[in-house]
Amino acid sequence: MFTRRLFLASSSAALWVPALARAQSDKYHFTLGVASGTPRETSVILWTRLAPDPFNGGGMAPGLVDVRYRVCRDEAMRQEVRAGLVSTSHLKAHAVHARIDGLEPGREYFYQFYYGDDESPIGRTKTTDPRAGEARLALANCQAWETGYYAAYRDMAEWAPDAVIHVGDYIYEGGVAPLGPVRREYGGVTLDYSVVRQHNSPEITTLDDYRNRYALYRSDRHLQAAHAAAPWIVAMDDHEVDNNWAGLIPQDPDKQSDFEFAVRRQAAFQAFYEHMPIELPPNMMRLGGEMQMYGAYRFGPAQVNLLDTRQYRSDQVCGDGFPGDPPCTALDDPSRTMTGEVQEAWLLAQLRNSDARYNVLAQQTWFAPFDYVDDPENRKRNMDQWDGYPVQRQRIIDALASDVSNPVILSGDWHCAAAMTVHKDPDDPSTRPVAQNFAATSISSICSWHGRIDEARQANPHVKYANGTDRGYLRCIAGARDWTASFRTVADAADPDSPVSAHAEMTLRDM
Ligand SMILES: [Fe+2]
């Protein structure tokens, strides 16, 4: 494996230049940066994609090529611990996934890719360590390209956490909005924001569309910096495919047949894999094939159970969205699920068997209830979130209440930061608190409904903090004594270099 040629090449990337690579393009190949993810005690997946013409299919000629990588202990890339070649081709958009095994737990590593004359940026990654005394985790979601820049990611990259948890809406599937300031009325509140940059096509539906959309998002320098600064663990939400999809059901079945949606979902899954540092899903190329995104990761005192609440969920009921119709009988159906039976059984077993101080559910939507009308007889809730799946939510609460150490639930999706207590009976705040639910605000997506949330705060005494006006992300520090959640907010989402600071900070002691 470790040939003399590779060894020589490790001292200078330019020594190893495949002739084919030179012939293909004079442009820089690593336009989309580098990433790492799926961190374990002794392994991590490194990612890049050869894309000399990133917004037009990538710009590589069809065929197989080899890309070289090196992994070192130091940022200067002198103390090499691994080096090798990875093959890729047009069949995966010339994306590169290199799984590196045999690493030491809880260690920083630095990595770089080489192709032709080109060297990629150098990335930093870190293996996990269950014995670490502390874990530093960033939670991100919802990064609509058009409505804001990614200053939040610059701040996250500077923090260099142990891992970034992304719970979805990494891309948005929509078309192009006109540039400039927007003023909208929503629920009696005036919203002012700007479309600061534009999507690169009408609504995306084909594999080429999705690839070009990922390339657009990944071209952002701050997003690239956050990927290069830490390993990510990722699970998609709805906009990576289509708004509010559920299983194999689109939001608008009148506009796309079941077959059309299955083809579209497969394309979306493939492009997601091609742009994320994750394992190859075994049956991804099959129509209707699954892509397992859920999994457990141990960061020091925190066991993070990353959930997928979109791919296996039952269709939304009672109005399919926000705010839903008054409760209908379908809500009481115990077979309705956010996770599917298999994932639920897996999660409950994880919780039962965990010896971690903090047991984290990192997932897409708000887990705690939220009433948009102060009338218990005529509740209006968001049917796309856990409020639309109350029977399964109660099963999970019951499991958390039975001797699970410090449950912390992390959420995205709603473009609104929040700190909420989940009670044993989630509708009755006089019952025992069981878990804390922290929601990160969006990186850049607008929270049009923040006025509705602010208005309804009194009807939701379990909500200790809510902020839908600011963009940002959540920093979590799981320590030996307590858990700190810091809501980082961007001063001006229309400024890529905006300052970012803590808007609120909360500390949890043992629950
Ligand atoms: Fe979103």
SSE inventory with pairings:
Blueprint lengths: L3 H8 L7 H6 L9 E4 L6 E6 L15 E8 L7 E9 L6 E6 L7 E8 L2 E2 L3 E4 L8 E6 L10 H9 L3 E4 L13 E7 L2 E7 L11 H12 L2 H9 L1 E4 L23 H18 L19 E5 L2 E5 L34 H13 L4 E5 L27 H12 L5 E5 L5 E7 L9 E7 L10 H6 L7 E5 L4 E7 L4 E8 L9 E9 L3
Parallel strand pairs: 1-13, 9-10, 10-13, 15-16, 16-17, 17-19
Antiparallel strand pairs: 1-2, 2-5, 3-4, 3-6, 6-7, 6-8, 9-21, 11-12, 14-15, 18-19, 18-20, 21-22, 22-23
Helix pairs in contact: 3-5, 4-6
The structure holds fe (ii) ion.
The site of fe (ii) ion has 6 residues, from loops.
Protein name: Alkaline phosphatase
InterPro entries: Metallo-depent_PP-like, PhoD-like_MPP, PhoD-like_sf, PhoD_N, Phospholipid_Metab_Enz
Keywords: Signal
Key terms for this structure?
binds fe (ii) ion; 18% helix; 511 residues; Metallo-depent_PP-like; 2 domains; PhoD_N; nine-stranded mixed sheet; Purple Acid Phosphatase, chain A, domain 2; seven-stranded mixed sheet
What does this structure look like?
The chain has helices at residues 4-11, 19-24, 151-159, 207-218, 221-229, 258-275, 341-353, 390-401, 450-455, and strands spanning 34-37, 44-49, 65-72, 80-88, 95-100, 108-115, 118-119, 123-126, 135-140, 163-166, 180-186, 189-195, 231-234, 295-299, 302-306, 358-362, 407-411, 417-423, 433-439, 463-467, 472-478, 483-490, 500-508. It is of the alpha+beta class and 511 residues long. It folds into 2 domains: 4-126, Immunoglobulin-like, CATH 2.60.40; 135-508, Alkaline phosphatase D (PhoD) (Purple Acid Phosphatase, chain A, domain 2, 4-Layer Sandwich), CATH 3.60.21.70. The strands form 4 sheets. Strands 5-2-1-13-10-9-21-22-23 form a 9-stranded mixed beta sheet. Strands 14-15-16-17-19-18-20 form a 7-stranded mixed beta sheet. The site of fe (ii) ion has 6 residues, from loops. Fe (ii) ion binds next to loops.
